[in-house]
Each structure stands twice: as structure tokens, then as C-alpha cells.
């Protein structure tokens, strides 16, 4: 068999999409770099950033054919499971920032939280968190914030299709903990929802835990643990046409 034919077969084997369950503590770019090492392929990209503290579904394209099709995936709607802490705020709107006490009314009722959540259903204007990767004047917002020169982005229109409590809120250490399932459009910051929900209730709010459970028709049940790909990715790779066919 000619050498060129062997090379083409190997390239084909390493082209497609990986559905990965991103672990906490890694950036989405860290995952991309890990996949590059596993595959030896430099053309690798992902279809939607997850914050380092977050876990869940990350779609990674491997090879030219897959990375060319990323634009067909980045605009898909997303679903998340999140734990919000209400009655405290964070400099980063998540559990990794400095936590500040911003107490709620001690007599806050569950019905008031449910009513406040309804304000976020539909198309809303949302101001991205100060610690985000959005560029303003050529500088990423989180870089400016770390330098002590925080920037504020303009409000963006996003759509929240549904936001539902998984269970009744609980009170711990003078804060309210609530687990939610959120279905939203691309570009939505779950951290901003927590922040704004806390404000709507007269205090503060931030995200303690966040897990992405779906991107469009693709679900976390289809995802592979990142470390399981060490031994080879061929069986986990979804051909480009197969992944795009449900869209």
C-alpha cells in the first residue's frame, strides 16, 4: 500500500467530533490542548466555552473537516443544572471569587423566589459578568478586572426558554441555596442570572455549581470522560456528517 494512502487513512481516523464531559478545574482551552496531545492533530477547537469551575458537555472538533463546521454548533441552545447561592455575592459571580455578604430579607418566602424567576423567562437584556472573555477595546474583560481596572460590557439580548427549580430552596448559613434547570440561548451567562436574581430579591447571588447537560440535540449521556480518551480517541470520534445530521 502506498505511504500516502496510509497517511490519508490515519488522518481520516482522527477527524470528527468528540463529546466530552469536561471536569472541574480545567478551562475549555485546556481540554482542547489535551485532545491535541491525545490525537497528534493540531486543528482542534471547541463549540462553546465552559468556565473552569463548571463541568459538563463540551463538543470538540478534531481535524480540518470538523473545525470548519464549528459555526453550525456554536449557536445551538444549551441546558444547564446549576446551584445558586442567594444572600451573598461574588466578585466573579461564581464560587471562585471573593464572597461578600449581601443578605436577603430574613422572611423571604419561596413564592417570592418563584415570582422573581419568572422575570427571567423570554428574551431579556443581560450584562455579562465583569470576569468574562468578552473583549472591549481589544482587551478581555477578565484581564482588565485582574489588573484592578474592571470594564463593563453593554447589555446583550439573550433568551431564557425555561428556568425551573429542581427542589425546594434550603437555608444554610443565612443564605438560600436553590438548584435549577435552565434552558437558554447561546451567549447566556448563568452567572449573570444568579447575580441578577439575587439583586431582584434585594440582596446578592452567585453560582456555586454549574453543569452543562446538553447542546442542541446532544446530551451529557453521550459524552466521554476526558481521561478515558488517553488510550485512543478513534472509537469516541463521531464522523462529521453523522454529528451534523440531526441539525
UniProtKB/TrEMBL annotation:
<feature type="active site" description="Nucleophile">
    <location>
        <position position="51"/>
    </location>
</feature>
<dbReference type="GO" id="GO:0003723">
    <property type="term" value="F:RNA binding"/>
</dbReference>
<dbReference type="Pfam" id="PF16198">
    <property type="entry name" value="TruB_C_2"/>
</dbReference>
<dbReference type="Pfam" id="PF01509">
    <property type="entry name" value="TruB_N"/>
</dbReference>
<feature type="domain" description="Pseudouridine synthase II N-terminal">
    <location>
        <begin position="36"/>
        <end position="190"/>
    </location>
</feature>
<dbReference type="InterPro" id="IPR014780">
    <property type="entry name" value="tRNA_psdUridine_synth_TruB"/>
</dbReference>
<dbReference type="InterPro" id="IPR020103">
    <property type="entry name" value="PsdUridine_synth_cat_dom_sf"/>
</dbReference>
<comment type="similarity">
    <text>Belongs to the pseudouridine synthase TruB family. Type 1 subfamily.</text>
</comment>
<keyword id="KW-0819">tRNA processing</keyword>
<dbReference type="GO" id="GO:1990481">
    <property type="term" value="P:mRNA pseudouridine synthesis"/>
</dbReference>
<dbReference type="GO" id="GO:0031119">
    <property type="term" value="P:tRNA pseudouridine synthesis"/>
</dbReference>
<protein>
    <recommendedName>
        <fullName>tRNA pseudouridine synthase B</fullName>
        <ecNumber>5.4.99.25</ecNumber>
    </recommendedName>
</protein>
<dbReference type="InterPro" id="IPR002501">
    <property type="entry name" value="PsdUridine_synth_N"/>
</dbReference>
<comment type="function">
    <text>Responsible for synthesis of pseudouridine from uracil-55 in the psi GC loop of transfer RNAs.</text>
</comment>
<dbReference type="GO" id="GO:0160148">
    <property type="term" value="F:tRNA pseudouridine(55) synthase activity"/>
</dbReference>
<keyword id="KW-0413">Isomerase</keyword>
<feature type="domain" description="tRNA pseudouridylate synthase B C-terminal">
    <location>
        <begin position="191"/>
        <end position="233"/>
    </location>
</feature>
<dbReference type="InterPro" id="IPR032819">
    <property type="entry name" value="TruB_C"/>
</dbReference>
Amino acid at each position: 500500500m502506498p505511504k500516502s494512502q496510509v497517511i490519508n487513512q490515519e488522518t481520516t481516523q482522527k477527524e470528527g467530533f468528540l463529546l466530552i464531559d469536561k471536569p472541574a478545574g480545567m478551562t475549555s482551552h485546556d481540554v482542547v490542548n489535551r485532545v491535541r496531545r491525545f490525537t497528534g492533530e493540531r486543528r482542534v477547537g471547541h463549540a462553546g466555552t465552559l468556565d473552569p469551575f463548571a463541568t459538563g458537555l463540551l463538543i470538540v472538533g478534531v481535524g480540518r473537516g470538523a473545525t470548519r463546521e464549528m459555526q453550525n454548533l456554536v449557536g445551538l441552545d444549551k441546558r444547564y443544572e446549576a446551584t445558586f447561592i442567594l444572600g451573598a455575592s461574588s466578585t466573579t459571580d461564581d464560587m471562585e471569587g471573593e464572597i461578600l455578604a449581601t443578605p436577603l430579607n430574613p422572611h423571604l418566602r419561596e413564592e417570592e423566589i418563584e415570582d422573581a424567576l419568572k422575570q427571567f423567562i423570554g428574551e431579556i437584556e443581560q450584562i455579562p459578568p465583569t470576569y468574562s472573555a468578552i473583549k472591549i477595546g481589544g482587551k478581555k474583560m477578565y484581564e482588565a478586572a485582574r489588573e484592578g481596572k474592571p470594564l463593563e460590557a453593554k447589555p446583550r439580548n439573550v433568551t431564557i426558554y425555561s428556568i425551573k427549580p429542581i427542589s425546594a430552596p434550603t437555608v444554610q448559613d443565612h443564605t438560600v441555596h436553590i438548584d435549577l434547570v435552565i434552558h437558554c440561548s447561546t451567549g447566556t451567562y448563568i452567572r449573570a442570572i444568579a447575580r441578577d436574581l439575587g439583586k431582584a430579591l434585594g440582596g446578592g447571588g452567585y453560582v456555586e455549581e454549574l453543569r452543562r447537560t446538553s447542546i442542541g440535540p446532544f446530551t451529557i449521556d453521550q459524552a466521554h470522560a476526558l481521561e478515558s480518551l488517553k488510550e485512543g480517541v478513534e472509537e469516541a470520534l463521531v464522523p462529521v456528517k453523522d454529528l451534523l445530521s440531526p441539525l
